[in-house]
């Protein structure tokens, strides 16, 4: 089989509103985080070398097994499984002689979508190397398959945001809708340095819901209503109101037990330093908080976040879109 040199990329993502409630059919809004990304380089390998995936950052190389073989290891799920899905989609029955090298600047287990981005970039690279670049509409369900292996019952929000690389208004099982952002939305993304498993937090919210649906359903519905208002605020450029909605969303996530003392402290530090609003983003109990800032407050809020324990602070802007 002829293979050629190719690359695949995918960005991270931030959830602006609605994480967790989105698993229960409520809407959510997310945006790509272009400041971090996965880049996969594919190069022809020696005859009979098979398909290998190298992760220089971990000093690891794995061989992608025959397409019917599976394994329970996290590295298989993250690297080999996406490559197998790409080959199956192309109806290729045996791994080609191809060497993939994966480099990522997306922190893992921090709610920025590293798993979905890794899968998207690997599938793009494999398909391009076999001269069949994959369209986003075909890629999205494949990345969702990988997400299911990582998280059990993902909503599909992460893969959709990462594959299409645009702000999305997302309802589970419904066609993705665009968000027409009216004014630039500048956010600081502060890493708590605490890793957290989305599978665990999603499972804990499920247990809470099953134990007391009469108490939890209204919380989920309030998050959904707030997401609706947030979309209108983004579409009219009402940024002060948008910030207040972020604060409310964080408080409701706290009721779902997925915030933590560290995340609360980071959000409070951002607000005290002049952020228009702050919340955690992603699965919670660790990972990142996002703070909405105007130009005058970006530097003092970033400094306050570092002072409060953030291990890194990125600045990103969701640009106006039609
Ligand atoms: C994880 O990034 C977002 C969650 O809402 C889970 C999901 O949507 O599948 C917590």
Task: Give a quick summary of the entry.
This protein is an alpha+beta fold and 322 residues long. The strands form 2 sheets. Strands 1, 2, 3, 4, 5, 6 and 7 form a 7-stranded mixed β-sheet that branches. A 4-stranded antiparallel β-sheet has the order 9-10-8-11. It is built from 9 helices and 11 strands.
Q: What this model shows, in words?
A:
This protein folds into two domains: 6-170, Ribosomal Protein S5, domain 2 (2-Layer Sandwich); 180-318, Alpha-Beta Plaits (2-Layer Sandwich), CATH 3.30.70. It is of the alpha+beta class. The chain has helices spanning 74-89, 114-129, 136-151, 157-164, 198-211, 213-236, 239-255, 261-272, 298-307; strands spanning 6-17, 28-44, 51-55, 60-63, 98-104, 168-170, 177-178, 185-191, 277-281, 288-293, 312-318. The radius of gyration is 20 Å and the shape is globular. Strands 1, 2, 3, 4, 5, 6 and 7 form a seven-stranded mixed sheet that branches. The chain has a four-stranded antiparallel sheet with strand order 9-10-8-11. The longest helix is centred in the last third of the chain and has 24 residues, at 213-236. The model has no long low-confidence stretch (mean pLDDT 95). The N and C termini lie far apart (43 Å). Bound molecules: (R)-mevalonate. (R)-mevalonate binds next to helix 4 and helix 5.
């Amino acid at each position: 089989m002829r293979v050629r040199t190719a690359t695949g990329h995918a960005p991270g993502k931030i959830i602006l509103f609605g994480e967790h409630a989105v698993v229960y059919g409520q809407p959510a809004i997310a945006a790509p985080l272009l400041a971090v990304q996965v880049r996969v380089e594919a190069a022809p390998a020696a005859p009979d070398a098979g398909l290998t995936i190298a992760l220089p950052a971990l000093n690891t190389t794995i061989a992608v097994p025959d397409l019917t073989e599976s394994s329970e290891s996290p590295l298989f799920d993250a690297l080999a499984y996406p490559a197998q899905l790409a080959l199956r989609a192309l109806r290729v029955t045996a791994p080609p002689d191809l060497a993939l090298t994966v480099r990522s600047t997306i922190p893992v287990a921090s709610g920025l979508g590293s798993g979905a981005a890794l899968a998207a970039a690997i599938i793009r690279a494999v398909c391009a190397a076999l001269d069949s670049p994959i369209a986003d509409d075909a890629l999205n369900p494949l990345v969702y398959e990988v997400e299911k292996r990582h998280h059990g019952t993902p909503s599909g929000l992460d893969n959709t945001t990462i594959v299409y690389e645009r702000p999305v208004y997302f309802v589970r099982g419904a066609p993705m809708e665009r968000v027409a952002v009216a004014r630039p939305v500048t956010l600081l993304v502060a890493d708590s340095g605490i890793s957290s498993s989305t599978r665990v937090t999603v499972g804990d919210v499920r247990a809470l819901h099953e134990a007391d649906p009469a108490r939890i359903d209204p919380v989920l519905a309030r998050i959904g209503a707030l997401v609706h208002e947030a979309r209108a605020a983004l579409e009219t450029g009402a940024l002060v109101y948008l910030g207040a909605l972020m604060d409310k969303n964080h408080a409701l996530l706290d009721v779902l037990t997925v915030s933590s003392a560290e995340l609360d402290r980071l959000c409070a530090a951002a607000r005290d330093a002049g952020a228009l609003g702050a919340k955690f983003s992603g699965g919670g109990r660790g990972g990142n908080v996002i703070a909405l800032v105007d130009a005058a407050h970006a530097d003092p809020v970033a400094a306050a976040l570092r002072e409060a324990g953030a291990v890194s602070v990125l600045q990103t802007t969701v640009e106006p879109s039609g």
